[in-house]
Amino acid sequence: MNATYWLDLLIIIGKSSLIYVFIVGAIRLFGKKELAQLSVIDLVFILLISNAVQNAMVGNDNTVMGGIAAALGLFVVNYIFKFISYRSAGFSKALQGEAVMLIHDGKMLDENLRKAMITKEEVEAAVREHGVEKCSEVNIAVMEVDGNISVITDNYGRRSVRKRRAHKVLRQQD
Hints:
Blueprint: H1 3-30, H2 33-36, H3 40-58, H4 64-87, H5 89-96, E1 100-104, E2 107-108, H6 110-116, H7 120-129, E3 138-143, E4 149-153, E5 158-163, E6 166-172
Antiparallel strand pairs: 1-2, 1-3, 3-4, 4-5, 5-6
Helix pairs in contact: 1-3, 1-4, 4-5
């Protein structure tokens, strides 16, 4: 294994890292809702993106070491992002965004719905998934940074978080 071989692997690591940063930025720019609510279109999009960037990461190198180098670059950048996010609230906020209140005291906040790029119908569906019939019964509904929707009802006594195709009550008080 000569120096050119190792340089090629370092280039793969660098390209993979750069693409990782680009994809994270693009996902952040184009909205976080999709992270928790994948539709068929979103899944196809993710598969096509991964296929499109594969060649940019490894080029013509179809070797196991080329794949390992690409994976190593991705793992390292992912670790660095998580480490910095843990240490820096500002970086974490820039990377992940902030939670957005969608409903307050039974009233939908139209400006925040636009900001979160979510329709009234989607919010109403999320509320129903939490077992609440009407939005007017909701004290607070929040789109969390991961795209899940939390709903607080019963005079701020019951909180649940909307997961993909799942409903889980996190805390319930009498």
